[in-house]
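tool=predict chain=A
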Amino acid sequence: MNSAYYKFREKLVHAGLWPEGRMARIACYLAGLAALLFLLEHILGLFGSSWGEHLEGWVNFLTFIAGFLFAILAFGWLKRRLLWRLRNRLIVTYVFIGVIPVVLLAAMAFITLYLFAGQFAGFIVTSELNSQMRSADAGNAAIANELAARLDRGETPNAESLEGLKKHQTAWQKRQVCAWIGNTPLPFCAGDPAAKFAYPEFFNNPANEFAQDMRRGMPFHAIVRDQDHLYLRVAIVLPARSAQLTVITSEAVDKGLMSQFAESVGEITLYASGIHLETAPPAAAPSEPSKTQTQITNSDQGFVITQSKKGSAQKDHELLTPTFTVGNLPPASGFIDREIHFVTPLRVVDWHTGESERAGALVRVRTTPSLLYAHLFASLGDFATGVEYILLAVGIFFAIIELIALFTGTRMTRTVTRAIAELHEATRHVDRGDFSHRIPVRSSDQLADLALSFNSMTASIEKLIQEQKEKQRLENELAIAQEVQAQLFPRQVSELESLEVHGFCRPARTVSGDYYDFLAASSHKMILAVGDISGKGISAALLMATIHSAVRAYSVESAPQMREPMAVGSVAGSGRLMATWPEGAEISPSSLLALLNHQLYESTPPEKYATLFLGIYDGLSHRLTYSNGGHLPPIIMGKDGTVRRLESGGTVVGLFDNMSYDEGSVQMHAGEIFVAYSDGVTEPENDFGEFGESRLIDIVRENRDASLTQISQAVTLAVDDWIGDNEQPDDVTLVLARAR
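tool=predict ok
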């Protein structure tokens, strides 16, 4: 049984399917837990228990998380398997460079053309409606002028021009025309008596926009809602008999009217207002259109219009149901002649109140590109066919270019991958110790030059192999040491709300003997540590790592904190001091320095010591409590440029045993900058002497309003300029913190 299991596991490991990583194991655990809960849910359901229903959410959640993790793992597995070969990488690169942009452009063109076609179809309908209103407006103006002239002459208000319009234009046979002197109707009203309409009171409202336009001589023309019907109405106001003559022409928006437009666009469905789903309480005054947001959503019954005021939670919902449908959609003329659906809102005016409804009605158009194309190029005649042939020729030309590019790219890919494969095979020979293998050179390009360089390299590499191995070993050790030390410096700093921090360290050699760290002691406290180890190189880096580990070990948030030791003594047989601290006490920089001093004294040679500054910043009180163990005194620069030095503490750490350290505390106000540095900043020399602390203070003072990163860059650039072409003499470390 165990043998079969291990064989099965070995096969999965060889195939890369065994969950070796942490993410893979978590994904498997979550998938197993989801399966277990799924079985438990169905078992409880069989017994009629309601607890199984509560497990469904957990099953879905765990399944989603496990599926997401498995998708990440599958992507990594495919990447490792498919993209190992250079040819596959180039193919993927060509796909991303050449294919995907073409697909995106085609998709964007399709979406653009679809939206354009839908907009064009809606534009045809709305433009036809506007054309009908302009036609009615012209006839209405003629009738109004005739009536005004008759009234001015005291004659009977008859409109002979209306009879002529009805005789020569069939559209006027369905239109109703009424007139008023002031608010008094004239005994003249032509049209269907059942469709008679009242005089709109909002024409007399000086605040209404339509009434204002008519007083300026502009005619009224709009789609109106009157008695649960939609009409095209135009109106004009003329002076007559020292009063105002109002003439209004109305035409119902019905199947007969819309059928005239459907011939050129296909099928038209009109949606008008129906059942009110929810209505907010009426406001005291109508809101401005620019402060109202309108949203149109589709539903099974029709379209729901949602209107809301900015800054208000009240929303109005209105359902627009299909009123009628006219026209038929002809059969598609080809594969690309697909149906296009588009909805266009119509602005409707309430005939009784004069208020505009931004989406009082909707027109839904079902059309095809062939219908729109025929309507758009109807005036071009045979020229449109020529345009089709031109576009077809351009498409064929682009396709030929694409095929040529594909063929050329494939040939070039084979050339590159073959050279890389030969180079890879040659490196395998070198890896086996066979330096007699040579790469065949077939061309005179850069790849051939690379092959010649490789052949030349293999000819001389054997006599240098031993020296290279030794050098490689030393470089590997230094690289490992540098990498390990780089991990010790803080990479992601969790800043406090009241303190911004920044640290910078540049070694003089491969590894550094300087040390700095930022530790979050609690949600509002942070430990700042800056140190300098005696000496340079690997030994200083090792001592730096020791101090780093010790500071973090004694300062972790979960460990008992310390202010003063409760009991300090010697454990029998150990020869070392042991200390315990009360739970919940605050961290003490002086106690930390004393403990670190004892540890370094016991575990390092006499000539090894360190300077170390430890500070704890309390974000609640904005106070920095510190102790300086022989380090160059940090400074706090105020917003006005004044400087305070932090000198409380004692001697260096690790040189003498049983040392105690003083502790200081300073208040940091908003905008004040804490500056700590190593001697690599102030002691570099040139012909003019040392760089000096005063020059450092001047640079920080000049840039105190800049970001901490910019201040650090300004200091390091100044130090580099001071050193010039000389070698950097010591590690450069700079720690900055700004209270906020």
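DSSP finds 16 helices and 26 strands in the chain. Residues 133-280+291-376 form one domain.
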